[in-house]
TrEMBL record:
Taxonomic path: unclassified sequences, metagenomes, ecological metagenomes
Keywords: Hydrolase, Metal-binding, Zinc
GO function terms (MF aspect): hydroxyacylglutathione hydrolase activity; metal ion binding
Domain Metallo-beta-lactamase per the UniProt entry, residue ranges: 12-168
Keyword Ligase: no
InterPro entries given in the database record: Clx_II_MBL, Glyoxalase_II_hydrolase, HAGH_C, Hydroxyacylglutathione_Hdrlase, Metallo-B-lactamas, RibonucZ/Hydroxyglut_hydro
Broadest EC class assigned to this enzyme: hydrolase
Enzymatic reactions: an S-(2-hydroxyacyl)glutathione + H2O = a 2-hydroxy carboxylate + glutathione + H(+)
Any Gene Ontology biological process: methylglyoxal catabolic process to D-lactate via S-lactoyl-glutathione
Pathway membership: Secondary metabolite metabolism; methylglyoxal degradation; (R)-lactate from methylglyoxal: step 2/2
NCBIfam families in UniProt: GSH_gloB
Protein name stated in the entry: hydroxyacylglutathione hydrolase
Co-factor(s): Zn(2+)
HAMAP family, per the entry: Glyoxalase_2
Length: 263
């Protein structure tokens, strides 16, 4: 059995620690080393592996300092475009990673936020990096909008009970946007109230579940009439396929300013 714990880092990142009953820890996307080192000191864990979802510095800059401080050599798994930034074992679509705890994760290629972005899925868990957030999705940096759309839809097809652990605390800002698109969505309003309480208590709003995201995440709700209406009103014209709706709201979100204290 593994326990997943959030390690807050930088401005709004979460580094995820997957800790086994023996104290072995797998770290996901260490953007800096110091919070992980403090966590290990407090919990008496030992590092067994590192998983990287993409090459951005706020997900990789802690790898070498962490390995150096702990003076250990452990496998570091990541997509090909992290090679050169840190020493890794490159992973590709459908690769299976057996962790020392016995847990097995499958690599999912989810390009969009970056061209080589991957997610790790297994044991009822999903680590989507910056592809899927609670009530949102990642910005487009390197790939095509079509790639991002396909990647988000792919994650949305996972079992609804799958617990997702995105890499940033963006929930309140994303819910502010979701509520703009669907002001009458009661589940969004309820979730927003819950998230506010969690942040006031300095608690993470994550994990989320794929099932919850289908109820509150506009990027997984492009087939609903309310999202289509909002997107077409913003575009000032009728929109055709679901991809066009996705593109419109993703571009809209890029310039949306949340009237929300995201804490």
């Amino acid at each position: 059995m593994i326990t997943v714990t959030d390690i807050p880092a930088l401005a709004d990142n979460y580094i995820w620690a997957l800790v086994s009953e023996t104290g072995g820890a797998v770290i996901v996307d260490p953007g800096e080393a110091d919070p992980v080192i403090r966590y290990f000191d407090q919990k008496h864990c030992h590092l067994e592996a590192i998983l990287l979802t993409h090459h951005h510095p706020d997900h990789t800059d802690g790898v070498e300092p962490l390995l150096g401080y702990l003076n250990v050599q452990v496998p570091v798994y990541g997509p090909f475009d992290t090679l050169g930034r840190v020493p890794i074992q490159p992973v590709h679509e459908a690769d299976r990673i057996l962790l020392p705890s016995g847990a097995v994760f499958t690599v999912l290629a989810v390009p969009g936020h970056t061209a080589d972005h991957v997610a790790y899925q297994g044991e009822g868990l999903l680590f989507p990096g910056d592809t899927l957030f609670s009530a949102g999705c990642g910005r487009l940096f390197e790939a095509r909008m079509e790639d991002l759309f396909a990647s988000v839809q792919r994650l949305g097809r996972l079992d609804p009970s799958t617990r997702a652990y995105p890499a940033h605390e963006y929930t309140l800002a994303n819910l502010a946007f979701a509520a703009t698109l669907e002001p009458d969505n009661r589940l969004i309003a309820q979730y927003r109230g819950q998230a506010r309480k969690q942040r006031m208590q300095k608690r993470a709003t994550l994990p989320t579940t794929i099932g919850l995201e289908h109820a509150v995440n506009p990027f997984l709700r492009t087939a609903t009439g309310s999202i289509r209406t909002a997107a077409e009103h913003h575009a000032g014209k009728p929109l055709g396929q679901l991809f066009e709706i996705f593109r419109e709201i993703r571009l809209w979100k890029d310039h949306f300013i949340a009237r929300e204290d995201v804490m």
